[in-house]
Design brief:
Layout: H1 10-32, H2 37-43, H3 45-56, H4 58-61, H5 66-92, H6 97-123
């Protein structure tokens, strides 16, 4: 079924805005505190709440363009976790510690980009990413 076939309920669109706001709040915490964007994004309670809501609402979003946003948010979260683990492994070598910091900074920028791009698509009421239109 084409994801744009069904129009999502307004409450689901609003909830998706809330999830982007929660992710943005966590990322902002990483910019305004000694934490890094990626670590604040992954460990901050707003993002953890958002990812739980994401998985709870998947069945309701199936068949709508909102599902693309839920996938986008989940993939952002899980890939950021993967990149954090890679940076952690690099940091264990001590020699590659500077590379680990660069890797974390780039992952943080990627997280911010994904939040902004996804939220802008949601504001336009369209799917995000390379999912069926």
């Amino acid at each position: 079924m084409n994801e744009a076939a069904l129009e999502p309920a307004d409450r689901l669109v609003v909830l998706t805005h809330v999830m982007y706001a929660l992710h943005a709040l966590s990322a902002l915490g990483g910019l305004l505190t000694p934490a890094l964007v990626v670590t604040a994004f992954l460990t901050g309670w707003p993002s953890l709440i958002a990812i739980i809501i994401n998985y709870v609402k998947r069945n309701e979003a199936r068949g709508t363009w909102i599902m693309a946003h839920l996938r986008w948010q989940a993939r952002t979260f899980w890939f950021a976790l993967l990149w954090l683990m890679v940076a952690w492994l690099l940091a264990l070598t001590v020699i590659l510690l500077p590379l680990a910091w660069i890797f974390l900074a780039l992952t943080g920028l990627w997280v911010v980009y994904r939040i902004v791009r996804g939220w802008l698509a949601l504001l336009d009421r369209r799917p995000v990413g390379s999912y069926p239109q």
